[in-house]
Input
Amino acid sequence: MIKKFSILSLLNNLGDEYILLKKWDDFPAFLPGSDVDVLVIDRFAVSEKAQEYLHHILAGEEVFLRVGEGNKHIHLDLMNGNDILIRLDLIDSLDCFTRFSVQDAIKVKIFLDRENISVDNQEVFVLSHEFDLLIRYFEYLEWFERRPDKMKHLDYILANSTQEQRLVLINNAHRFIRFHHARWQEENPPKNVPVKSRKQALKEIARLTKAILYISWKSIRLKIS
Output
């Protein structure tokens, strides 16, 4: 492990130009191979700042920095030989999904609503609860047919939201995304996805929709009365 490295010091070096997208339970501790997903204002500017910091703390270490640039993200990997110790994944747009597109306006709203929490006496910028639920829902919509393990996002939403928050979630989804219908209607069904998981996914979606319709009905009744 790198003696001088900590996730908190890395994030602190980024100033206020980031939001940690997924804060795990034992944060800031991490296991080798972990990903740190960060939404930033400008991935190239933040990448330069992070690289300068990482090169400084890696001086004299066997660990080295590997930089990978994709179409919509930049990976900064701390490498020990061929093994990734930790990956910093910088994205400056949420338009990274294949089954739907996300409007750019959502990033402004996410930054305006982000929360500032204290971890070991250092501030960390994280998603608001509203947008944490929404991004988990995006990942679920993107992957549930091909990755049954992504059911965990729907389970999390159902376990960590009220009926009113689920209504806000669906409203936000309709507000900020547009589906690519051709990719939802593929001629060939996904392979190696258990039938049980697809049935369970549809069951949970129906349950969520039923709850939302119930809330909408109650709202209409209150307005009439």
The helical segments are 7-13, 43-58, 105-113, 129-143, 151-159, 163-176, 181-184, 195-224. The mean pLDDT is 82.
